[in-house]
Amino acid sequence: MSETMIAALIGAGATLLVTLITQLATVFISKYKSSLEMRQKEYQSKRGNLHEVYKTLISVINLFPNVSPNDILKYVEYAPNYSLEHFDSILKSLDYQIEDYQGQLNISSIDFERKNHIETQISNREYVKKEISKIRDEYYKARDKYKAFCESEKVIFDLYAGQDVRNCLVEFEVVIHNVFVSGRSVGDVDDPLDNMITISRRKLVNSMRNDIGINRNI
Question: What is this structure's pTM?
Fold first, then answer.
C-alpha cells in the first residue's frame, strides 16, 4: 500500500474521529442544557410556591432561644431541675431559695465569709431568674408563632417542600422538644458547632436555601 493511500486513510480516520467526538459533545451539551433548563424551571416553580413560606418559617425558628433553662441553672448551687415547660415553677423555687438566704442574713452571729457567700448566692439567683424569664418569654412567643405557621402555611409546605427540608424540620422540632420539654442541655451555649439548637436551625435554613436553588449556581 502506497504512502499516499496510508496518509489518505489516516486523514479519513482522523476526520471521522473528530466528527464522532463533535457529535457526542453536541449531544452531551444538548442534554446538559436540557437538564439545566428543567432544573431551572423546577427551582423557579419551587421559589414561586415556597419563597414566602420559607421566609416565614425562617423568621419563626429564629425566635427560639438557643439556650436551655438548665444551662442557666448550672450557675447556682442546689438548683431546681427544669422540664416540661415549667418555667414558673423554677422561678418560684428560686424565690424560695432567695427568701431562705435572706433569712440567714438576719442572723446576728453570721460571720463575714458566710455573709459574703450568701449574698453571692442571692445575686446569682437573681441573675438566673432574669435569664430564665427572658428564655420563657422568647420560647412562648416562638412556640405560638410556630403553631400559627403550622395552621396557616403547613399545607403548602407539605405539598411542595423537599424531603430533606421536611426531615430537617422534624429534626428541629425534636431538638426543641428535647430542650424545652425534656429539659436537656443544648451543649455549649456559646459554641455554634456544639449547640444543638444552633446546629439544627442552621441545617434547616440551609436545606430550605438548597431546595429553592439559592445555594446553587442556577
Answer: 0.76
